[in-house]
Amino acid sequence: VIEIGQPEHSKVTTCAYCGVGCTFKAEMRGEELVRMVPWKDGKANRGHSCVKGRFAWGYANHKERILNPMIRDKITEPWREVSWDEAFNFAASKFKGIQAKYGKDAVGGITSSRCTNEEVYVVQKLIRAGFGNNNVDTCARVCHSPTGYGLSSTFGTSAGTQDFDSVEDTDVVMIIGANPTDGHPVFGSRLKKRLRQGAKLIVVDPRRTDIVRSAHIEAQHHLPLLPGTNVAVLTAIAHVIVTEGLVNETFVRERCDWSEFEDWASFVAEPSRSPEATAIMTGVDPKELRAAARLYATGGNGAIYYGLGVTEHSQGSTTVIAIANLAMATGNIGRSGVGVNPLRGQNNVQGSCDMGSFPHELPGYRHLSGDAVREQFEAMWNVKLNPEPGLRIPNMFDAATEGTFMGLYVQGEDILQSDPNTSHVVAALSSMECVIVHDLFLNETANYAHVFFPGSTFLEKNGTFTNAERRIQLVRKVMSPKNGLEDWEVTLGFAKALGFEMNYTHPSEIMDEIAALTPTFAGVSFAKLEKEGSVQWPCNEKQPLGTPIMHMNGFVRGKGKFMRTEYIATDERTGPRFPLLLTTGRILSQYNVGAQTRRTDNVVWHEEDRLELHPHDAEQRGIRDGDWVRLQSRAGETTLRALITERVAPGVVYTTFHHPTTQANVITTDFSDWATNCPEYKVTAVQISPSNGP
Ligand code: SF4
User: Fold this and answer.
1) Alpha-carbon dihedral sign for residues 603, 609, 615, 621
2) How far, in Å, from the CA of 177 to the mean position of ligand 1?
3) By three-state DSSP, how is residue 303 classified?
4) Residue 566: Cβ-neighbour burial (10 angstroms; 0-12, 13-18, 19+)
5) Helical (H) or strand (E) element with 463
6) Alpha carbons 302 and 126: distance in angstroms, whole number
7) Residue nearest (by alpha carbon) to ligand 1 atom 1
8) Which pLDDT does position 218 carry in this prediction?
9) Exposed/middle/buried for 449, CB within 10 Å: 0-12, 13-18, 19+?
10) From 12, 50, 57, 182, mutation site for ligand 1 pocket: most ligand atoms within 8 A of C-beta
């Protein structure tokens, strides 16, 4: 006799929310998921979980989920449900027609950091080998692309340096632009445990996040900088380290290019870069900044953890470089307890970047311009590859409004909600002749789509995700896809209709191809993942069981590279019309634009996004807690309820963006990182005023 709720069978799989990569035992009764039990042997979570991974999986059964393919000729027409074959043929004939009329480069695609490595790989392969161009980009463009640029330039590889276990040996934790309590809760708890054991804490963040002061934890130093001044603050920290003789000269001489170090040291030592000279600009007390710099440089093993508060700026890449400079100057790299650790937002941001989703790089971050690299892929794929880099997402939108980019395949991302400058995205999508949305729900982007490929959830597919510590873990199918096909099979169906066949019968075969083509993945296979539980790349002949800590005996690029970090203020300035600075973040129970978590019971914890503002700013405007306020920027306006709090400093306001009515990206500007085009979501000049509601 089976009791109600009693599981019949189970499988271990990986959470599909954040970059921590917790593993769970999915307990099933037939095809019904009964519960998700945190897996005690999970290397990233060791039996822990948060309210998203544990409870927020009900979206898989949500009534709004689309299970049948749909097509329409015009976006003004109603959708027509069709068979998979009809949808594939319709999409293929549209894309072929566009390429015949506008040229080969008039189509492209966007891969998803929510999908598996194998699913991302086949989309980029379809674009490069099937479409015949390199117009492939990833949703990581709008989050961690500056991490790729900054860490590749300085260390030689686009990834965090440590495993999560490394924090056990850390003496000083520096958190920059991240809120691990809400954004990466399981690792956040681990950080807090280490802090309770006595590690010291420095927080660089405009907002007093929970970790600054919570049970048994009080940060030694909180530097509440003005949004947009990261580079000035980190360069001032470097100034203190250099001018007070705190550089680890032995490490720098052995491991880094000395002449580049000398150039950097003379640059940061200039008096104009001191904490005192930059205090008015950054809003940071110079005494606190000096004390924080001394603590990081002399307090033992120093580890830096950072998030989107670093990358989503016009100087996002410069900020990542500034962080790398600090770690090299103090010798905090290449052993347990130290390092530079980007906290990745989505479950597979690391993987989607590793899989060749950038217009200039093939899988494994190998540049298209390398003849030998291209030849290796050409031999395996049996095609001739175009050596010219393709378009990034913002360039695709620009080309669409100019009439030269007419077809887009969007895998698992609601670009209308997640990309900046909503009106420009609308104009771009409206200009295209065929937009394919491949997703679970009819999202906002689907309003402008001609083809809808229903997607499968992480519970309905096999594959792998790669977490923030480069850990590759299996995603195991615990139920049949409700839409009939796993996502990689959908891409293969579309490719076949286009005349480009990819013959795999299981995602493990896709991983075998990735391993054959990508030196850092050469030792990865599903069989090894089954046996070992997980491996961290690089995983190859030299390190068959993977690499928990990178750069131990030398940087991947050879010598570590110091680079100057000139602070250039964003063009998004405050002034009489827009005197406040808006920045954004997340809460624990919800995830990004809420497409999944809002369709689960987690919604009871969060009914609306609120605008946090300081009591001083509220009083000046006659706003009381809970009042409706109108939030205006140069780009647009929206309406939210006020939450009056001293978590934010006077002059700074803050909101989350989990609910579609918040329309945060109607407000944000279209400024972006100089190197990668990552949007500047974290700094918007705004004005607020009382309102009667939306
Ligand atoms: Fe999932 Fe991240 Fe929560 Fe772990 S911490 S359960 S990976 S959302």
Assistant:
1) negative
2) 19
3) strand
4) exposed
5) strand 463-466
6) 43
7) 53
8) 84
9) buried
10) 50
Cα 135 to ligand 1 centre (Å): 32
Of 587, 597, 21, 562, the C-alpha closest to 265 is 562
Distance from C-alpha of 236 to C-alpha of 275, rounded to nearest angstrom: 5
Given a contact cutoff of 8 angstroms between Cβ atoms, the answer to whether 134 and 360 are in contact is yes
Label residues 396-420 b or e (16+ Cβ within 10 Å = b): bbbbbeeeebbbbbbbbbbbbbbbb
Of all atoms in ligand 1, which is nearest to the CA of residue 17? 8
CB atoms within 10 A of CB 372: 7
Question: 22: CA distance to ligand 1 center in Å?
Answer: 5
**Under 8 Å between Cβ of 207 and 183:** no
Q: Nearest Cα to 270, choosing from 562, 561, 567?
A: 567
Average pLDDT value for residue range 11-35: 91
What angle, rounded to 10 degrees, do the helices at 84-102 and 487-498 form? 50
Span 193-235, pLDDT tens digits: 999 999 999 999 998 988 888 767 888 899 999 999 999 999 9
Indicate the SS3 state at residue 439.
strand
pTM of full prediction above 0.95: no
The 3-state DSSP composition of the chain as helix, strand, coil percent (nearest 5) reads: 40, 20, 45
d(CA 532, CA 515): 17
Q: Tens digit of pLDDT for each residue in 606-656?
A: 677 889 999 999 999 999 999 999 999 988 889 999 999 999 999 999 988
602 Cα: distance to centroid of ligand 1 (angstroms): 14
State how far Cα 581 lies from the chain centre.
Answer: 23
Distance, in Å, from the CA atom of 345 to the CA atom of 109, rounded to the nearest integer, reads: 21
How many DSSP H helices and E strands does the chain contain? 23, 28
> Which ligand 1 atom is at minimum distance from the Cα of 51?
3
Angle at 146 between CA 140 and CA 147, to 5 degrees: 85
23 membership: H or E segment, kind and range: strand 23-29
The candidate with the shortest Cα–Cα distance to 463, out of 455, 454, 473, 453, is: 473
CA contacts within 13 A on the Cβ side of 104: 12
Pocket of ligand 1 (CB under 6 A): 15, 17-18, 20-22, 45, 49-50, 52-53, 184-186
**Distance of CA 163 from the midpoint of ligand 1 (Å):** 16
Ligand 1 site-directed mutation target among 13, 20, 37, 189, most atoms within 8 Å of CB: 20
**CB 458 within 8 Å of CB 440:** no
Q: 570-583 in b/e burial notation, b at 16+ Cβ within 10 A? A: bebebeeebebbbb
As given in the structure block, the two tokens for residue 552 are: 């131990």
| Cβ neighbours, 10 Å, residue 454 | 25
Residue nearest to atom 6 of ligand 1 (CA): 53
Instruction: Compute the radius of gyration of the chain from its Cα atoms.
Output: 24
Distance CA 143, CA 362 (A): 20
Q: Can you name the residues that pair with 268 across neighbouring β-strands?
A: none
Long-range contact pairs involving 182-185 (C-beta distance under 8 Å, separation at least 24): 182/209, 182/210, 182/585, 182/586, 182/587, 182/588, 183/18, 183/307, 183/343, 183/345, 183/585, 183/586, 184/18, 184/19, 184/20, 184/307, 184/343, 184/468, 185/18, 185/20, 185/50, 185/51, 185/52, 185/588
